[in-house]
Amino acid sequence: MLVVTSNSSSFFLLPQFRIPNSYTVASICSIDISRNYLFNPQWAIFFNRDTNSFLVGRVIITYPAPRNEALISHWIASSADDLLSEFTACQGCASAIPRSFTSKTLLKRCPSEKCFSYVPLSCLLRYPTKPRTYIHADTRSVLLSASLGYAKSLLLFYLFAPVRLPPMLNQVSRISDIQLPSSVSTLYIDGSFLPPSSHPTPSMAYAWTAIDSDSFILESHYNIIPSLFPSALHSEIFALLHGLDSLPRYSKITVATDCAQLISLWSMYVDASFIPKMLKEFNHLLWSSARAIISQKNLKVSLIKVPAHADDSLNNHVDDLAKAAHTDSRLSPIPPAFLAPCILQFNSLFVDMNIRKFIGDIFAAKSLLTLALLPRFNLNSSISDIDWACTKFCFNNKQLQSSYRNGQSEFCAFRIKILLDMLPTLTTLQRRKPHIYDPSWLCPQCNSSPETLDHLWTCPYILPEFSPFNTFKTLLLDLRTVCLGKFLSATPLKSLLDSFAVEFTAMDCWECDPPSYSCLRLTRGLIPMSLTSFLGTYFSSSTICSIFDTPLHDFHFDLYVQIWLCCSIFFHHWKTAQGITNKMKSSAIGPSPTSHHFSQISPAISTPSLATASLDSWVSWVFSYIIHGGSWISHLDFWRHLTVQPLLRISFW
Known about the structure:
By secondary structure, this protein is of the alpha+beta class. The chain has helices spanning 104-109, 148-160, 232-245, 260-269, 284-297, 313-325, 355-372, 388-395, 398-405, 409-420, 426-432, 453-458, 468-489, 500-505, 517-524, 529-535, 541-577, 582-585, 603-606, 617-628, and strands spanning 42-48, 53-63, 69-73, 75-77, 86-89, 116-120, 124-126, 135-136, 141-143, 184-194, 203-212, 217-225, 252-257, 300-305, 342-346, 349-350, 648-652. The protein is 35% helix and 15% strand. It is flat. Mean pLDDT is 82; it is low at 1-26, 164-173 and 592-612.
């Protein structure tokens, strides 16, 4: 089912099935009239302009001019819901023609149908369904492939959408306002990209030089490019695109470039016939635009490789021009313009990447924001105290998935539950079933404090030398030692100071006697921002995440085996001693077992950071992701408020 929203309300009768008149709908099929006067059944939908009503049925015979009619059977929708697609044969109604007017041969071929009408072909459209659709003889019903609402929308679009003329032959220059002479024979092109590490913001520029057959320079041009999914390849392709758009029609041109990747992708996406794989790649809008320009202008283009940073004076010339564009204050970026058949925009920014992945990134960003705003993460500190990018990386690792596939699903559940503070500790059970677990009961192992998640790691036990607290301290210090060793052996962005090891071990998150709040968060898998900020001085984000990944996984596994499983066995015997049976636990008496863990927490203390964190923060993450490149998760900002609503728009031409 296709559901497309629109800002326009023109010509629509069905608000849940809106197709803007600027869209191209490829699935519209007209009635087959190649076998006029012959039995040629095909499912169709008809719109009666006089009564503003629809008729669904099977076209039996078509009649050419001057009649321009079709004999169609009448089928009735089994439900008033337009989302369904089941129909039953009408057994007779006021609009039916007398049976005596219908050929007996046709009646024999249509045993399930009793009601027929003549309708004009101009208001008839083939119903989007499989060519051969089975009619149930016993119930005289049929199930078509597409819903009735979708078919209605297609028909309305077909009948009432304004006619859009194809592009004019002379309307080919939509990116460049330069018109080169017909004597041009070679284009030297080059792109330049300054990444964020060497520039305050990513900067892209391009340049090209046109020469004639006598090697005289006809014209040179350079400019900066709007920052959309910035990369070195993007600037190279745009240089090619702008140069091609500056050529006259019917040109035969040789393009010289020092980018081997550009030539490789050219042979794959432009020289060859169109392949859908191109739409899954970055810069597919640029490649589609290049194909369109070549087709519209009837260009013959060949690419050649020139050595980079060699003695080719023309290649060095365009290289210098492209680099100079970054610092030329007189330049202004060209407004983005593409000649691609399908363009997706996010808040007016063109999405020049795999559309399916981009939609997935949007949902991933919204999901992370929803998770981060849960009250359980904001009880005693700010939402920004957690490095959510590193935390997400460590919980999406391949080791966790491998553990699940290798029969360790209980351990996987344990990791998720300690992250969300959902382990069935005694305190949790007391909230869920106070009629079974007395709220006054304390930790069964020490009988000194309530058994919360944090108490699991700090429980002194009745025999201190065997306490979970001692085990916890040993495991945490082992984690610190392993991580420190990995960072000391990793390749840093800059040389480590002599005090690095001392500063690392002195971080608050390693303070375990007694455990600091940052330490308890790290135990749950929530990587403190203070830790990654310190490490970020010396290492890249990817290095930090990859180093923490495996040690944190192993740390959690040791907690699971050495503390949680032991506590679970002890707790099982303790419940038996208290007379708690499985029958009592499954009893419906008392509060619902699904009542929320934090339902009794006062709103005043449960959401200290929600007053400042924006619920639309994910939009700014995706917005920055498009402009600055990288990944959306590298642009987390929970306090950036927006003044406009997010808008995702698709346009066709």
